[in-house]
Structure formats: structure tokens, C-alpha cells
What we know:
The structure holds two protein chains of two kinds.
Chain A: E1 6-10, H1 14-25, E2 31-35, H2 51-54, H3 68-72, E3 75-78, E4 83-87, E5 92-95, E6 100-102, E7 105-108, E8 112-114, E9 127-129, H4 133-142, E10 148-152, H5 156-167, E11 171-175, H6 188-200, E12 204-206, E13 211-215, E14 222-225, E15 230-232, E16 235-238, E17 242-244, H7 247-251, E18 260-261, E19 273-275, E20 280-284, E21 289-291, H8 296-310, E22 322-327, E23 330-336, E24 343-349, E25 354-361, E26 364-371, H9 377-386, H10 392-395, H11 402-409
Parallel strand pairs in A: 1-2, 1-7, 2-3, 7-19, 9-16, 10-11, 10-16, 11-12, 18-20
Antiparallel strand pairs in A: 4-5, 5-6, 8-17, 13-14, 14-15, 20-21, 22-23, 23-26, 24-25, 25-26
Helix pairs in contact in A: 1-8
Chain B: E1 6-13, E2 23-27, E3 30-37, E4 40-45, E5 59-61, E6 64-66, E7 73-75, E8 81-83, E9 92-93, E10 95-98, E11 101-107
Antiparallel strand pairs in B: 1-11, 2-3, 3-4, 4-9, 5-6, 6-7, 7-8, 10-11
The complex binds flavin-adenine dinucleotide and FE2/S2 (inorganic) cluster.
GO molecular function, one term (chain A): oxidoreductase activity, acting on NAD(P)H
Region (Disordered) (chain A): 387-410
Protein name (chain A): Pyridine nucleotide-disulfide oxidoreductase
Amino acid sequence: MSRTDTYVVVGAGQAGGRAAEAIRGAGFSGRLVVVGAERVRPYERPPLSKQVLTGAAAPDTAFLRAPDYYDEHGIELMLNQRVEAIDRGSARLTLAGGETLAYDKLLLATGSRVRRLALPGSELAGIHYLRDLDDSLTIAKALRAGARVVIVGGGYIGLEVAAAARKRGCAVTVLEAGDGLMRRQVAEEVGDWYADLHRRHGVEIVTGANVEAFEGGSRVQAVRLADGTAYPADLAVVGVGILPNVELAADAGLEVDDGIVVDACGRTSDPAIFAAGDVTRHPNPILGRRVRLESWQNAQNQAVAAGRTMAGEETPYAQVPWFWSDQYDVNLQMVGLPDRVDRLVRRGDPEGGAFTLFYLKDGRIVGANAVNSAKDIAPTRKFIETGAKPDPDMLSDPETSLKKVLKAAG
Amino acid sequence: MADQNVEWHAVAKASELEAEEPEFAKVGDTLVCVVRLDDGIYAINDVCTHEFAQLSEGFVDGCEIECPLHQARFNLKTGKCTELPAEDDVASYPVKVEGDDVYVGLPKG
Ligand SMILES: Cc1cc2nc3c(=O)[nH]c(=O)nc-3n(C[C@H](O)[C@H](O)[C@H](O)COP(=O)(O)OP(=O)(O)OC[C@H]3O[C@@H](n4cnc5c(N)ncnc54)[C@H](O)[C@@H]3O)c2cc1C
Ligand code: FES
């Protein structure tokens, strides 16, 4: 590395922002540029479906850093600029305006975009998706008391929007195609517990709902199912998953497999190019397989690892995947990414509003869903990391601290 | 911290503090997290500097405590923040044990 080198980060989201910080933090003294398509400096997305929607926190609280930080650390932010192409032969990027930018090393943190429905009426006004700050501000404005909100998708984004909309006095219906809520993210019994929670808060939950069309003149007026039922709507919010923004990498000939393929340190198939965050498929040594994660933890910490490595401090990323969601006053945390499970052990009382469900495989913990039980997460992660076998009776007893269960397991 | 600048408050019983099991105490408006480690008892401010979470609900790992909400870490002996997403340190307080009483010294005023 020399003082005259230029490192470029593409994507000024959470991963891009954290990677740039890490590159500087590891001592890189050359030119450091972050090119981002959004109009604002890097921020975190979790508040967009939580505090920003309910109005509990100002949007600025989501920013990673104060505006001065970037100047102070010699990080050039080129916002409102999209990178159109990477020419690896000449090590140059082409920006949307036609300008080019040379790099010595490149880090791709292009993240994800929402999956859009292509149904009759999809183009009507009043149908919203939630990914960026402007989406969140637009939806927040539309959530007026009394408005009828139909949410398509009973995953965590849809449900967080449902909770925020209830808080703002809207009438809320959630249409979920599967037979329960958050089926991709949590155990059935936890999903069912959430269905009850939402119903208690006045949300209408419809499962097995096959959305067929949006109806209305110029604005959406109803969401119609295949069975003919129409749910009247003043606005609709769709949360049906995301897709990784891999096109830039794929077009440049980098190895892509539902995510840009990187090694544990974030290197792509081109040694001058790194990638981090939602857009990567990376090896997880604890799980023993490659994963593409859509999480805050990964966007921060895998990006830090890749940024450091790029600046010369080899840093493999190895953490147990972890994710959370806040709905009403309930904090949900999920740790691990269990693919096979042979036993579930419950700790605490679902009726009482706080419990943890552990996933076990061959006597070892491979994951957990903790409902209002945040303190259970760190010890669970230790169990997953070490492969220690807990005593199931101790595990299910909320009076025995998990620290003790961990010590007893050796 | 010199004794005259702090006010001592009894916050726990030494015999009831189990190793690496954080306890919390409220002194006036200040929330304090008290932990017994191998080499003594330590006290830091209980409120994470990221968002609102009580560190005493967190996990003790060596001489650090991890926030239960987003996994920021703080050194229990110094209050120093060692992992993102928090950036600011928490206050650390002197501790003394007299008989079975654990006292924490908070700044006067
Ligand atoms: C509403 C919402 C709530 C969430 N809540 C949680 C939660 O509670 N807990 C949790 O763990 N995770 C949560 N997540 C997930 C988490 O926010 C994401 O995993 C994280 O944002 C991924 O960060 P990233 O930087 O990899 O990608 P992104 O955040 O997608 O950022 C990528 C950036 O790159 C830009 N970009 C893309 N292509 C180009 C290009 N060609 N040129 C220039 N710029 C480009 C994009 O505009 C974008 O700004 C939530 C996500 C959303 C949307
Ligand atoms: S509140 Fe402690 S890390 Fe976020």
C-alpha cells in the first residue's frame, strides 16, 4: 500500500460506511472514496421500520456518524452517484454520468433491493415498499390515524410496519401467503405467538392469503386475493423479501452465486476487489457452510473484517449469525441459523410474555429465538460456538442462569 | 478518584454477588452495574451509550460485559467501550467492601 493508492467503496449503506471506517482505522493513508446511490451519508436501516415509523426517534439517529466525521477522517463521500460498471482490466469504475474513477482496490457493498410484486395493479399509487430512508418517511406520513393499511407479507418487515401503524391509529390487515407468520425466521410456535400478539393489538391476520391483484383507479383501493376476497386499503405496504444487488459484480465477471462469493476475509475472485454486507455469500466457520445474510450484524462486522483486510490487516469474519426485531414493546432476537433440529427446549413462559426457545441437534444448541429475553442471547451464542452440551433441565429452568448452565456443560 | 470527591453508597452484599453474574443498583437517578470478577468487584454505569439498554442484563465475558441489545462491549474495570455500535465509554466507579457491604463511589454533586 502506498500513500498514493486509491481505495474505492461502492455503496454508502451500513456495510460501505463501516468498511470505510475500518480501512482508515487499519492505517490506510491513501485516497479513500465512498460512492453511494442514495442522497444521504451512511445510515442503519433497522429504525426505518421501527422508531422512525412510529415517530419515537428522529431519522438522524440512524446515521452511523456525524456529518463532520468523513472530512475529519479523509473519507470522500460521493453521494447521489451510481456506479454503472467496473472495468477490471483498466481498474476503473464508470459512474452514471459517464465519469470514470480509477481504483487500486475496490470494495463492493451494494446491499439488497426489495423484491417487487408484478401483479395487476402493481403500478397504482399508494403501494409502498420499505428499504431506504425516503421510503420510511413517505410511509410514516401516510400512516394517518384511521387509514386502512393492508400489509402484504407477514415477515418481520411487514409486522414491524403493522405494529407502527397500530401505534399511529391505523386499521391494519396483514396478508401472509404461508400458513403462519415469520416462518422463514422463527419456529412455528414463536410465529404463532406473534400472530396472537398482533391480534391482541387489533391487527387482522390472514394466513394462506394468495394476493392476486391491487384494485383501484389511480390509487390503490383494495388488495384482492385469489379466492376473490378484497381488503379495502388506503395504502398497501409490501414486504416480501429482498434480492442482493449482484449485477455490477456479475457483469464484471466476478464469481456470483446468489451473492458475491467471497472468502472469510471478504475477498472476491479478484484479489483487488472485496465485498461486504448483504450482497455477499461468505463462509461461516461456525456453521460450516456458506451463507448470505440479511442482517445488521453482518453489515457491520463482516464489513469491518473486509475493510481491515483490504488495508493489510488480515481479519477473517467468524460470528454466529444474529438478528433482531422489535414489534410493540416486544424484543425478538434470533441467533444461529439452524438447518436441522431434532428437539426444541423452552425456557420461560410464553403466557407471561418472555421466553426463549432453543433449537437442539444431537444435544447441542444450534439456535434460539428469544422473546423479551435478550439476556439469553449471548450465552446461547457461546453454546453454539463451543458446541458444549447443555443439561436440558437446567436450560429450561429460568431460575438457573445460563452462565451456570454454560459452566456446568464445561 | 480521591475519597473526598465521591460519595459512597451501599449497593450490594458481597456474599450475594456471584462471579460474573451482574447485579444492578439504583443510586438516586444513577443506574449502576456491579459485577464480581476473579480479582475483585467492579462497578460501571449500567446504561449502554448506544441506545437504551441495561448492561446488567448483559453477558460477562472475561473482563468485558456485552450489551444485551446490539452487542456493544465495555470493559468492566475501566468503562471503556471496546466494540461497536456504541462509541462512548460508560463511567466506571470505585468500589470498596466493608464487612459484607459493597460500596460504590459516585461523584459528589
Ligand atoms: C426497514 C428495515 C429494517 C431492518 N431491521 C433490521 C433489524 O431489526 N435487525 C437486523 O439485524 N437487520 C435489519 N435490517 C437489515 C439490515 O438493515 C441490512 O442487512 C443492512 O442494511 C445491510 O447493509 P448493506 O450495507 O450490506 O446494504 P444496504 O443497506 O442495502 O446498502 C447498500 C447501499 O448501496 C447502494 N448501492 C447499490 N448499488 C449501487 C451502485 N451501483 N452504485 C452506488 N451505490 C449503490 C444502495 O443505494 C445502498 O445505499 C433491516 C432492513 C430494513 C430495510
Ligand atoms: S443499546 Fe447497547 S448496543 Fe445498542
